[in-house]
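Bug report (template v2)

What were you trying to do?
Predict the complex of my protein with FE2/S2 (inorganic) cluster.

What happened?
Run completed; filing so the output is reviewed.

Input:
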Amino acid sequence: MRITLNGTPRDVSPAGHTTLLDLLRDELALTGTKRVCDRGACGACTVHLDGQPVYSCLTLAAGCEGQEIRTIEGLGSVDAPHALQRAFALEDAAQCGFCTPGQLMAAAALIAGNPDPSDDEIVAAMSGNLCRCGTYPKIVRAVRRAAGMLREASHG
Ligand code: FES
Ligand code: FES
């Protein structure tokens, strides 16, 4: 079956029981997406499926035929980081960093649909992403800052 992965068409043949998380990490070597609980309880495995954030550990790979998948590897790069990646660094919003890819993908989906989210909207949108290091206040600040950077950039 064919998927679009970070903008590039890919042909993959996942077994029926393979989750999207397993496909990404174990078969396609995209290990930026993290496996923590592997049961839909933490959000570390969040990716975008046709622009919507999903837990890839709860998503069957075979159900993704024809869909667009975006992972943290497709959000930005070291040379061209996404505003969220810059803002997380500036606000020191990652400690161990293990939850961070999932946080970034959840935040990216939020900002794409709501360029000026309130703190309450940020908290609500990110409530499915747990951080064992407890960096929540910094994460909210970073998402707010990134949204501001993107608004500024779009106004030229
Ligand atoms: S690893 Fe998927 S929700 Fe925790
Ligand atoms: S930064 Fe460590 S779990 Fe979030």
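What did the reviewer find?
Residues 107 and 142 are 10 Å apart (CA to CA). The helical segments are 20-27, 83-90, 100-113, 119-125, 136-154.
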